[in-house]
Write a structure and sequence with these properties.
Shape: globular
Distance between the termini: 76 Å
Oligomer: single chain
Strand content: under 5%
Number of helices: 11
Radius of gyration: 22 Å
Helix content: 55-70%
Structural class: mainly alpha
Order of helices and strands: HHHHHHHHHHH
Length: about 220
Amino acid sequence: MNSRTAPRPGVPAKRARNAADTKAAILQAAVTAFTQHGYDGVGVREIAQAAGVTAMLVNRYFGSKEGLFAQTVDAAFAPRTVVGEDPRTLSSATAATLVARTAPDAEHLDPFLLMLRSVPNPRAAEIVRAGIERHVGAHLAARLNGADTGERAELALALIAGTWLMRTVIGTDALREATPTLLTDQLQAMLDVVIDHRDEPTGSRVRRARTDPRA
């Protein structure tokens, strides 16, 4: 160590910047910012400041605000927050998790808030749609058997997203105050209609589900 590289007495040596850690810090700051404010409600400078870096560095790693948002969507939707893993218990596990995660005292589901607050921007809506299809939709469709798995998977996701919206954002009394066990059973019966493939017309299964939730 020569005089040009030796730290001065009482001054800590400057740590070398770790690219992976820096990128992770930016991405985490972006997840928080876009979830709280939506795509149009926050800029690169604010995200950079929250991450402790410059806006130039954000653009170096992610190319642009749009590129940063795309990777933020991937980071938000890749983890399994509601949809189950085991095809044999997909309806029951998903229904139970959805009820638990939308309870009045539960933590917020960041992917849903990110989606809700960002989709008014047309380009952000395209990125969110692609992220949902690539992660949650593909994950669910891969666990379905029979025909029309993509359509059935997205119908299930529509039920999940609608329940979350009505129960947590709008906060309708009936859903907020519903008995968890009963609400889980009702959601499971509805999910079974599109998740549980059988060799009969969908309309027949819908009619049977109305009279027999366990059909």
